[in-house]
Amino acid sequence: MELNSVKELDVLIVGAGPCGLALGCDLARRGVRALVVEQAPALFPGSRGKSVQPRTREVLDDLGVGDAVRELGGPAPVGLVWQDGARQQEHDMFRRAAPTPAEPYGEPWMMPQWRTQEILLARLRELGGDVAFSTPLTGLVQDADGVTAHLGTETVRASFLVAADGGRSTVRRALGIAMTGESVDPAPMLVADVRLAEDTLDRLNWHLMNGEDGFLSLCPLPGTADFQLVAQFKEGAPDTSPDGVRALVAARSHLTEQDVTEVLWSSDFRPRAALADRFRDGRVFLAGDAAHVHSPAGGQGLNTSVQDAYNLGWKLGQVLRHGAPVALLDSYEAERRPVAADMLGLSTRIHQGRQERGAAVQQLGLGYREGPLSAGRAGALHSGDRAPDGPTAGGRRLFDVFRGPHFTLLAVGTDTALPVFDDALVRVHRTDAHAPYGKGLFLVRPDGYIGWAGEDTTGLATYLAPLGVTTLTPC
After folding, report:
1. Strand 407-412, strand 426-431: pairing
2. Is 28 in the same domain as 102?
3. How far apart (Å, rounded) are the C-alpha atoms in residues 230 and 249?
């Protein structure tokens, strides 16, 4: 994409990973002038974050890519333990639950990170946005009204900048924001994407091998011919070359070096858990791995990153398009930093074998009850809770009603008189009593959480005013 014509923006997003692309999609559908820039010449090529948790599937469905995720991914394979080249027993590493009306996705969905990024980039382009590749951020200066960013030989002026540029974030370092944390495991690890000769390993299982030198796992990636390889080492830097990866497979499994027909991508790392000391500096925000780094155990990173974007996107939209005060953006750090801190603890405990991958990894129970945008309760729910799905009296599902950049005032099992709103901002929907809700009024935020709840409309107008929403008729 040419930058010569792009001088004034609402939001500059640095980094075209899942976080940056999700934010780009959310802003584009709100009519916010945003640009995603990426220093690499193309999307990240590896499988790295391969688990899409149920809550993130709901987010991706809202962003308009739910069908593509379903078609191009698949359920996580059940683990199969090997010993001395012989199949032993199956070991399922995940909690699996049948879909329910309130929770339509009951288990993690497996899809390589590069595929998730391809899907989001295609959606971003459908919405009129794009990514400027081979475009590094070389400097930034902010003032009270915006951010001036230097992109190679180009200069861009944006009202806000979002750093979604990963754990080694250039933006975070430029701002001098420290990361506080600790090593999760001193043992180095290697992750790679490989292809295997036909009939060497089945694609129905996640293959787990344990040996004296550490574990090796080979997980088939649905919708591809690839396996993701993960291995742990006791010490030293792993050999990430194709020959090194082939030798590793031969040393720790019954496969030969020749059975590894291709090594598509490889990398090494040492698991660490660290949290940025703050998620905001003036008009610059940190999101995704730029704000939190962690062990990959539990499959939380990509998911937490996408949900950072989902939380921030609607707030930027309200400020930039609907006149909400800039103070609304303070709620991003207040809501997301505690979630990220909890995620780091969960990932560390799973990595160290102190906790199983239970319901917590699905992220359906995450919420903002203690956050600054939560007010009231009604029926079975408290403000800050995730708004459940379910059938409606009109035959639609609640997630269909919520889908889009708007708020939804949901009246459940009550005939209380409701105000009228600008339909582009708030849509009103009535439905019969639904057990996960009980009875009452629920204002569902654009990110699918209940912001306000009550038995009648008392206090609703007061709640909405700082969000840039007014009623057309009195409450």
Report:
1. parallel
2. no
3. 10
The verdict on pTM exceeding 0.85 is yes
Say how many domains are in the chain.
3
Are 248 and 128 in the same domain? no
Same domain (yes/no): 100, 195: yes
> Do 54 and 138 share a domain, yes or no?
yes
Query: DSSP character for 76?
Result: P
Say if CB 192 and CB 268 are below 8 A apart.
no
Domain residues for the domain of 100 are: 74-109+186-270
331 and 421 co-located in one domain: no
Q: What one-character DSSP code corresponds to residue 98?
A: -
Are residues 205 and 93 part of one domain?
yes
Q: Kindly state whether residues 300 and 225 are assigned to the same domain.
A: no
Contact 197, 258 (CB under 8 A): yes
Final residue before a domain boundary, out of 297, 332, 362: 362
pLDDT tens-place values along the chain, 475 residues long: 444 444 799 999 999 999 999 999 999 999 999 999 999 999 999 999 999 999 999 999 999 999 999 999 999 999 999 998 899 999 887 778 899 999 999 999 999 999 999 999 999 999 999 999 999 999 999 999 999 999 988 999 999 999 999 999 999 999 999 998 877 777 889 999 999 999 999 999 999 998 778 889 999 999 999 999 999 998 888 999 999 999 999 999 999 999 999 999 999 988 788 899 999 999 999 999 999 988 777 678 899 999 999 999 999 999 999 999 999 999 999 999 999 888 887 777 877 777 667 677 778 889 999 999 999 999 999 999 999 999 987 788 999 999 999 999 999 999 999 999 999 999 999 998 888 999 999 999 999 999 999 999 999 999 999 999 988 787 6
Cα pseudo-dihedral 353, 359, 361, 366, rounded to 10: -130
For 418, phi then psi, to 5°, come to: -120, 145
DSSP collapsed to 3 states, 348-404: HHHHCCCCCCCHHHHCCCCCCCCCCCCECEECCEECCCECCCCECCCCCEHHHHHCC
Backbone angles phi, psi at 417, to 5 degrees: -65, 140
Q: Are residues 84 and 104 in the same domain?
A: yes
Give the Å distances, CA to CA, from 118 to 90, 134, 164, 192, 260: 33, 17, 17, 19, 26
CATH number at residue 62: 3.50.50.60
